Amino acid sequence: FKANLNNGIDEVAVQGMGISIEQYNDVFATQNHVVEGSMFVPGELKAVIGVSLAELMDLKVNDYITLLVRTKEETFNTIDLEIAGLLYTPHPMINNGIVFVPLGIARQALNVENGISMMAVKIKKDKEINSTIDRINQIFQEKNMNINAYSWKESAKTVIAIRAAEDAETAVMLIIILSIGMIGIINNVILSALERTREIGMMKALGMREWEIVSVFMVEATGLGIFGGLAGCLLGFVGVWWITEIGYDLSYIGGDMSSYGVPIIDKLYGVWNFSSFVFIFFFGIVVALFSSIAPAYWAAHKEPVKAIYHR
């Protein structure tokens, strides 16, 4: 519900949220982000607000606030509350403009009796989401209730779209990086074969067949791919370990990014993706192997005399 928060001197528009604290804590992890004080308990006439909102209104734990609200009859009412705790979450809206109050107090002030505007249901398994939504909607229809249940994905389409764009961006960057690495590998293998044209001519003069000469270069290129892949994976392991365990401190670029609408605070952490390590390792081996065939075959196909004298 919409409200105006008054600290006795200043006033700011906020969004009030009446919650049944025991059920709310079972579904959401907001209580894990309390940095000062605590969440209120049933029966208390208290509120919980974000740190940014508290700093804006010069409030602290145990201070009193007044919420000016409009009832369903379009009349004004007030709620006087004591601040029980301060939150610092990854969600900028909670930090900046939401006031959590007991559900009963909100109902009484808004004069909505037992009404609620939203109910959140937590499901243990993702595969049960659709079936649970269908059962809930069926119950609503049987009771002739003009409300619907929907998954969080439907209410977070923007977030999902941003995530899809990020995945596409990551894929493009990975393709560019792999292309650069592939060109480097091919270049090294080709130069290695061309520089040893004279040696290839000697091998052929001593009776080695073309496929045997090509096999030598393929084995050599495969070995280079294996050692190069291991070295790259080792360096990547160190880098990913650092970003996942220590993280990148955002204080170097301004600290709290939530003020800019980016839900990241304190540090930026990465995640392990072992499938990428495996893919990159075998990708390097395959590229090195196949890129060695053409130049080795070209050199091995030359006449021994021409190969020895680079003709």
UniProtKB/TrEMBL annotation:
Its main location: membrane. It comes from marine sediment metagenome. It is a multi-pass membrane protein. The chain crosses the membrane at residues 171-194, 215-243, 277-300. InterPro entries: ABC3_permease_C, Lipoprotein-release_system. This is ABC3 transporter permease C-terminal domain-containing protein. Pfam families: FtsX. GO terms for biological process: lipoprotein localization to outer membrane. Signal peptide: none annotated. Keywords: Cell membrane, Membrane, Transmembrane, Transmembrane helix. It is found in: Cell membrane. Residues 172-304 form the ABC3 transporter permease C-terminal domain. One of its GO terms (cellular component) is plasma membrane protein complex. The keyword Metal-binding does not apply. The keyword Signal does not apply.
